[in-house]
């Protein structure tokens, strides 16, 4: 059970596409392996900082294929709690606050990794700006770096969709989408009947995203009994974390990030205690 949850990994990209490794000794006086960009992958989505906090399906960012993937651990933070956390920190991660040297994508990845799994990203990524500036030619390249930062802020690099919390579309939305052409070809009573029938089907088939089991749909087991015990257990833990988080937030004493961390710790400690007693 302790190993169940959401896998968290770090996608690492070399923005120089190998040129840093080839030319850094000549131009900087020391070897630099790459110009790093990173994104946090969790819940099947990649989150990163560019012109604000951005999200895209894992591995489909404008930066191509990651040159390596770092396993950061397993998180028990539910997705909805994570999205509240992102909303809370978003004012600190905007196009205006971006700094290539001091407040960049790697600083964002490091902060998010600490929230999700209490781990940091590798030092060689975080320390790259200091390595460049402290190199023999660092002062010469500083104006070029500042110009690149201005270019990035201006949106010259393709940007993925901005982060937005997931929402569930009303079940009646599909029912109201009959085209004008369809309505014109039917009498008012026929159109209303078709709409009512389609609405009934949509209501029966639509399942709100928030209540879908994390482990996926239940499938019959080999003995014909439906259910996924690991998926059910994982869903139960995440539900408990969500309830604990809501209770803490209701007190109004903690920020969302602090409440999420405390809720996760309480539930996991509670589970560990039960295991010890069983």
From TrEMBL:
Residues 6-146 form the PPPDE domain. The gene is LOC113714022. Residues 162-175 have a biased composition (Low complexity). Residues 162-236 are annotated as: Disordered. This is PPPDE domain-containing protein. PANTHER family: DESUMOYLATING ISOPEPTIDASE, DESUMOYLATING ISOPEPTIDASE 1. Keywords: Hydrolase, Protease. GO terms for molecular function: peptidase activity. Residues 181-191 have a biased composition (Basic and acidic residues). It holds the Pfam family Peptidase_C97. One of its GO terms (biological process) is protein modification by small protein removal. Belongs to the DeSI family. The keyword Protease applies. InterPro entries: PPPDE_dom, PPPDE_sf.
């Amino acid at each position: 059970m302790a190993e169940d949850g959401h896998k968290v990994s770090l996608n690492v990209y070399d923005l120089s596409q190998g040129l840093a490794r080839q030319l850094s000794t000549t131009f900087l006086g020391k070897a630099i392996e790459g110009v790093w960009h990173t994104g946090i992958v969790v819940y099947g989505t990649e989150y990163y900082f560019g012109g604000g906090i951005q999200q895209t399906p894992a591995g489909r960012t404008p930066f191509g294929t990651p040159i390596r993937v770092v396993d950061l651990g397993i998180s028990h933070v539910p997705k909805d709690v994570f999205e509240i956390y992102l909303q809370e920190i978003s004012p600190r991660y905007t196009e205006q606050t971006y700094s290539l040297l001091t407040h960049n994508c790697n600083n964002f990845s490091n902060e998010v990794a600490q929230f999700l799994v209490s781990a940091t990203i590798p030092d060689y990524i975080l320390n790259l700006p200091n390595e460049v500036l402290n190199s023999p030619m660092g002062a010469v390249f500083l104006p070029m770096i500042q110009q690149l930062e201005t270019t990035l802020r201006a949106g010259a690099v393709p940007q993925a969709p901005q982060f937005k919390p997931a929402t569930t579309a009303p079940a009646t939305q599909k029912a109201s989408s009959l085209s004008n052409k369809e309505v014109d070809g039917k009498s008012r009573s026929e159109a209303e009947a078709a709409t009512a029938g389609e609405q009934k089907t949509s209501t029966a088939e639509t399942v709100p995203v928030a209540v879908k089991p994390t482990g996926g749909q239940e499938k019959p087991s080999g003995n014909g009994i439906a259910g996924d015990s690991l998926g059910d257990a994982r869903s139960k833990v995440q539900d408990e974390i969500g309830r604990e988080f809501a209770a803490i937030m209701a007190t109004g004493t903690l920020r969302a990030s602090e409440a999420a961390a405390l809720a996760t710790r309480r539930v996991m400690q509670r589970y560990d205690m039960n295991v010890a007693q069983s």
